[in-house]
Amino acid sequence: MKHPFEFYIDITIRLIASTVAASIIGLTREKINRPAGIRTHALIAIGSCIVTILSIYAFYDPITNTGDPGRLAAQIVSGIGFLGAGTILKRGMNVKGLTTAAALWSVAAIGIAYGAGEYFIGTLGAALIFFIVTSNRFYRSNSNNIQLSVYLSDSGAFKAVVDTIKKNNFNIKSIEKEVAEVGGYDFTFFLERKRSSNLQKLRDELLSIDGVNFIEHN
Description:
By secondary structure, the protein is α+β, with helices and mostly antiparallel strands. 55% of the residues lie in helices and 17% in strands. It contains eight helices and six strands, in the order αααββαααβαββαβ. The model has no long low-confidence stretch (mean pLDDT 80).
C-alpha cells in the first residue's frame, strides 16, 4: 500500500497529465474555430480521470475484496457520445464536427487511462490522437482544394467576391453562409485551384473590396 503522500502525488500527476494531453488536442480544434476547444477537451479528460479514480478507490472494499472499478468508467464511454453529438453540424450536403466529436470521445478515453494509472497508454494514445487530428495539414498541403472564409459586412459585396474569385481562375465547388454574431455574414468558399491561379493575388484583391475581411482559422 502506498504512503498517503505518495498516493496524493500519483493522483495529482494523473489529473495533470490528462489535462495537458487533452488541452493539446483541444488546441488543434480551437485553432480552426470548432465548437469544442481547449477548455471542453480538458474538462472532459479531467472529469473522466476523476470518475475513473473514484471508481477504483472510492467504491472498493479491501476487507471483502469487492467492487466494480469498470462500472463508472463504462458510463463515460457511452455518455460522452451525447456531448460529441452536439458538435456535429449538417449544412446542406456537408457534415462538420465529426472529427471534433471523435476527439472528445477519445480524450475521455485518455482521461480513463490516466485515471487508472496507465501512463504509457494515456501518453501514447494522446500522441496518436494528436497526429490524427493534425494529419490533414500534411496530405492537404499540396492539394488543389482550398477553403476560403470571408466576412462580409453587407451581403451586397457577395457578387463582387464571386466575380473576383472567378476572375482569378478558381472554380467554386460549394459555398456555405452563416449570419455573423456581430452582424453581417460569414461565407466559406470551397475552391478548386487551376494552374494559373494565384492565391495571394486573390486574397489581395478580395481585401480591396469594401466590407470584406478574412476569417483566419490557422
